[in-house]
Amino acid sequence: MDLFTLTAAQLIRLIASGKASVKEIADAVRSRLKETNGKTNAFIRSYADELVRSGPCPIPIGIKDNICVEGREVTCASRILKGFHSPYDAGVIEKVRFSGGILLGGLNMDEFAFGSSSESSSYGIIRNPWDLKRVPGGSSGGSAAAVASGAAVWALGSDTGGSIRQPASFCGVVGLKPTYGRVSRYGLIAFGSSLDQIGPLTKDVTDCATLLKIIAGYDERDSTSVAVGVPDFTKALQRDVKGLKIGIPKEYFIEGIQPEVLTAVQAAVDFFKKEGAIIQEISLPHTEYAVATYYIVATAEASSNLARFDGVEYGLRSLPDKARKSGIVDMYEETRAKGFGKEAKRRIMLGTYVLSAGYYDAYYLRAQKARTLIKEDLDQAFLDCDIILSPTAPTTAFMIGEKVNDPLSMYLSDIFTIPANLAGIPALSIPCGFDANRLPIGLQLMAAPFAEEKLLATAFAYEQAHSWHLERAVI
Amino acid sequence: MISQETVAYIASLSRLHIDDKENAGYVKDLQDILHYVEKLNMLDVSQVAPTSHVLKVENVFRDDVIRPSLDQGVAMSFAIESHAGHYKVPKVIE
Description:
The structure holds two protein chains of two kinds.
Chain A: H1 8-16, H2 22-40, E1 43-46, E2 60-64, H3 91-98, E3 102-107, H4 141-149, E4 154-159, H5 165-171, E5 174-177, E6 197-202, H6 205-215, E7 245-249, H7 259-274, E8 278-282, H8 290-305, H9 328-339, H10 342-355, H11 360-384, E9 387-391, H12 407-411, H13 418-423, E10 427-434, E11 440-447, H14 452-464
Parallel strand pairs in A: 2-3, 2-4, 7-8, 7-9
Antiparallel strand pairs in A: 1-3, 4-6, 5-6, 5-10, 9-11, 10-11
Chain B: H1 4-13, H2 20-37, H3 72-76, E1 82-83, E2 86-87
Antiparallel strand pairs in B: 1-2
């Protein structure tokens, strides 16, 4: 039995019964990381000197490279932050350390989390452990690929428009975006501040509940953090879904979805029905506006957040060559031109445009109003159902390079995940099958704000009756 | 329609130096994306309030007391250039 294939819950049992030590587990996972990283490129850097500590959950964990770890380089996979070492721990890192977690290293990602394929990292593309010719999804592609390949037992990612759930779907792992405000964003390098949320990527639902319990909770250093209690999410896991009302949004079953994805999701619906859940078709009429709304709101916030990278306080500074002037503005422009990659620049430009004088009302304000309509659709739906079920993504993992020159088609791969961010609700992806190429398919479940217990219980009921989560990528 | 002049203007607002070839690429990219988001014009939002924050959280205050924060020396240690506790930058005024 290889220790790196096990879940955190299994490993904790081995430790408790004296069958494996924390150090043995850390060594096994670190050597798996070394063995696989040349193929997946999931980690940007690993921490060989991280101490094995004591605590209730001494599990090796991978950290997306937009979450600050004291004394470690943190780059958002961007040239502009190369060499920056964080002077403090993010709120979630303090909590992980407190639980005894062993930090494995910084995980590769789309630069500044801008992407759905992990092809925009300045540290090179990430490859999907199920098929190295394919993308792992994005932007938390490193987090998903690391968990799927056993290079981390579990990992933290961040989700602004699907960046945890879509790679979880593509890599056959469980990924949860918690309710906005459930998990502290202190120390998360901001992309879209009204949308961003840190969450777990794990091998199964039990681990997802455990890691959420570790990282959740109020933090006064994040003014959007919400002072609600943290339940023991693992206690909520039970198999009974009798009477559970599950809504199936007709707008999510559109043309262009890969037929095998539809079949797998339909089989999940049939399962819940057989188990006594009440299945009802619902309508979320503003769904088709979600991607357009998102790409205005998210890029506007990103252009503002990324203004701080200017070659003064930290990171890269680049000066123009002698032919051009060399005042401070020239330094800003040259630093940002050299430091940001193509997609980051595209989003900064778009965000700046929609916020610029004369266009603010037409684009940004209108998008904020459309956001209200999308949120109201979901609020309304949750008056009459407990869970909304859909595919996580319209397809399984696509080929490397397939969408890289077509930003719009790339953006549309987030069509089912974006509404949860716009509305701030919790949503997760669990494996629900494989396509003919043996690529994982993801099932998305959404719930009302702070209903993570119901969400996890529903996912657990599905998982216990299926074995998709037990399949491991051969790499 | 997005023109090369608009792209140059947006690039300068964004503090990004771009060359002519990049400019042409942004003309196309921005045009495509803005064309796509124009579908929002089909919505009647005249009676809709904007959402900037999804939760009903307002006026998050904290007590006005000094608490420990990052030491100035530590914060300045990341500066690309500094002098006597100040950030050093290229000429600001012509």
